[in-house]
Amino acid sequence: MRLDKFLSKCGFGSRSDTKKIIKTGKVTVNGRVINKTGYIVDELEDVIKYKNDLLNYRKYVYLMLNKPKGVVSATQDNLHKTIIDLLEDYKEYDLHPVGRLDLDTEGLVILTNDGKLTHRVISPKNHISKIYKVKLDKVFNKRKISVFEEGITLNDGYKCLPSEIEIIDEKTVLITIFEGKFHQVKRMFQSIGNKVLYLKRISINGVQLDDKLKLSEYRELTKDELDLLNK
Ligand code: URA
């Protein structure tokens, strides 16, 4: 990896920031001052220091983001802002979202560059739980809870896995699902003749959206949260 990229990944700012830092002559690799910004380091083996402080390379980053409406949960999009555009830092980490939310859905998105974790969390066979807060157009018919528990059949004939409903008020429920088909929650309510007006993901496999995060804000996952995701 280039030295300027390495420093960026260690939190020293953008590539142009780290180029400047390298040129000050305060960065050493294996005891030698290096002022060539494109100098190639072995990030796992070399002893890299800034002003004598040892720099530790972090390969993987894990963030939680509170996605607002109107932002696409993808890395690139021609029309809309993406969740990557919301990040002010971590640009060097090539992060991607762990699963998608619709353009008009808010809430918890995990971002990482750990492809193995992404694969585990989104793999349909792992039945990872996701909890959504749903606001509906019409009063939720309580008698339909058992239909959700048994596995609701969508209008195209697909039978969903059993899901769980918790009623918050007449038109607001929490739903826990264990799969992630396209527009799944909206289609589940559509199949009982109700319409989702507002959707927010609040949890993935026990990792709760931090209620201190305002829309568009993000933070790193704690060790406990990462352990939950890896369960
Ligand atoms: N189900 C939906 O319908 N939309 C989402 O964004 C997530 C789950």
CATH topology of the largest domain: Alpha-Beta Plaits
Please name the fourth-level CATH homologous superfamily of the largest domain. Pseudouridine synthase I, catalytic domain, N-terminal subdomain
Uncertain ranges: none
Q: Considering DSSP H and I runs of 4 or more, what fraction of the residues is helical? A: 10-25%
- The tally of beta strands, per DSSP, is 15
Return the CATH architecture of the largest domain. 2-Layer Sandwich
* Major β-sheet annotation: 9 strands, mixed
Broad structural category:
alpha+beta
Mean pLDDT: 95
Bound molecules: uracil
Q: Can you identify the CATH class of the largest domain? A: Alpha Beta
Estimate the strand proportion.
Answer: 25-35%
Q: What general form does the structure show? A: elongated
State the gist of this model.
With 231 residues, this protein is an alpha+beta fold. It has helices at residues 3-9, 15-23, 115-122, 145-150, 184-190, 223-230; strands at residues 27-29, 32-33, 48-50, 53-54, 62-67, 71-72, 81-82, 96-97, 106-112, 130-136, 164-169, 172-177, 196-204, 207-208, 218-220.
Element layout with pairings:
Blueprint: H1 3-9, H2 15-23, E1 27-29, E2 32-33, E3 48-50, E4 53-54, E5 62-67, E6 71-72, E7 81-82, E8 96-97, E9 106-112, H3 115-122, E10 130-136, H4 145-150, E11 164-169, E12 172-177, H5 184-190, E13 196-204, E14 207-208, E15 218-220, H6 223-230
Parallel strand pairs: 6-7, 9-13
Antiparallel strand pairs: 1-2, 1-3, 3-4, 5-9, 5-15, 8-9, 10-12, 10-13, 11-12, 13-14
Helix pairs in contact: 1-2
Bound molecules: uracil (URA).
